[in-house]
Amino acid sequence: MAINSYTTLQTAIASQLKRSNLTNIADFITLCEENISNGNGSIKDAPYYHDPLRVAEMIDNRILTLESGDNTTTLPTGYLEMRGAPYISNYAPLEYRSPTEIGGITNTGIPGRPQYYSDIGNIIYFNKFADADYNININFYKLLNLSDSNLTNNVLTNYPSIYLYGSLFHAASYIKNDGDMQKYFALFKAAIHGANSRAITGRYKGISLIVRSDTPTP
């Protein structure tokens, strides 16, 4: 059976578990999506540490409007993190600053064109209150979570095993089957790692490496 929708994913999970009486399979998918988006723990949290998924299929781009007099704008639905620096059309990319730094350098007295930004939750903050309307170009990673009203997304379409094994890991945790937890987590982590590795390889495919010498040429 092809796993290509929220419905077929739930059917596949129930089939793998050989349990037709579970009514909370949607919860396992939600927990899997949290892991896909954010990873899990840090390297010291082995054996259940893994990186978040960051692949080309998760990249989107938008033009946000920073209105005159404002120093914030709302980020798109599903936003996870920036891929590269945002930029105002026809200007150099904005530089990132921590939320604390942005708060300290925001100039409330002299409106202008922003040079720095920080993102907190679904809001992007700038160091200037805009002196005009600006178009903010952003490239970012996103995941639109599955639901009865959103039956598929690019990750499920291209990496169904990530969804399947991640959901089964959480199902095994719920059922308290340690052996299946370890098995499905290993498969989930391997699927994430493989997808991320292919994304990195694809990003640099066709780029020739240039060997430079530290010794000056006479």
Report on this model:
With 218 residues, this protein is α+β, with helices and mostly antiparallel strands. Helices cover 37% and strands 21% of the residues. Strands 1, 3, 4 and 10 form a 4-stranded antiparallel beta sheet that branches. It has 6 helices and 10 strands; from the N terminus they run H-H-E-E-E-E-E-H-E-E-E-E-E-H-H-H. The chain has helices at residues 6-17, 25-38, 99-105, 154-158, 160-175, 178-204; strands at residues 59-66, 72-74, 79-82, 87-88, 95-96, 107-112, 116-120, 123-126, 128-130, 134-142. It folds into 2 domains: 6-53 and 143-203, no CATH class; 56-142, no CATH class.
Residue share in helix:
25-40%
Using only C-alpha atoms, the radius of gyration works out to 22 Å
Largest sheet: 4 strands, antiparallel
Query: Structurally, how many domains make up the residues?
Result: 2
Strand proportion, as a percent range, falls in 15-25%
User: What is the number of helical segments per DSSP (H or I, 4+ residues)?
Assistant: 6
Ends distance: 66 Å
Instruction: Tell me, rounded to a whole number, the average pLDDT.
Output: 89
Coarse shape: elongated
Poorly predicted runs are: 206-218
Number of strands: 10
Order of helices and strands: HHEEEEEHEEEEEHHH
